[in-house]
């Protein structure tokens, strides 16, 4: 519950998805809860690895993004490869910007972030779909599901 709440709170500013801005040496040192609280509202970058089932959360510190924490993805659907059409039950792959209005704290799937699929790249390739989220409740029909912890 606290992990998803932290992700939601940190997404108050749109996420920036420029991999070149990521720090070259990712910190694996645990970050205290107090320090995480101080970072609330900072720009973040989320990187999801489907096969490894991990969501890495980076936070902007100075001019670079540093790894803040990694979270396990409980479930995603459709296997590897991009989502291409509505109803294929695949979880999307790509770079997505999240705005404040895409945060869904009252979602029936615990708490949710609409990732903004399809983006311009997806639309240019004819990919379609809607309501694709990162959320709790460990259920997926195209979303990235986390636990409610």
From TrEMBL:
KW Cell wall biogenesis/degradation (keyword) present: yes
Residues in the signal sequence: 1-19
Catalytic center residues: 135 (proton donor/acceptor), 143 (nucleophile)
Pfam families: YkuD
InterPro entries: LD_TPept_cat_dom, Transpep_catalytic_dom
Domain of life: Bacteria
Biological process annotations from GO: cell wall organization; peptidoglycan biosynthetic process; regulation of cell shape
One term of GO molecular function: glycosyltransferase activity
PROSITE patterns in UniProt: LD_TPASE
Domain L,D-TPase catalytic: start-end pairs: 44-149
Keyword line: Cell shape, Cell wall biogenesis/degradation, Glycosyltransferase, Peptidoglycan synthesis, Signal, Transferase
Pathway membership, UniProt: Cell wall biogenesis; peptidoglycan biosynthesis
Family listed: Belongs to the YkuD family.
The protein's name: Murein L,D-transpeptidase
Natural source organism: Escherichia coli
Lineage: Bacteria, Pseudomonadati, Pseudomonadota, Gammaproteobacteria, Enterobacterales
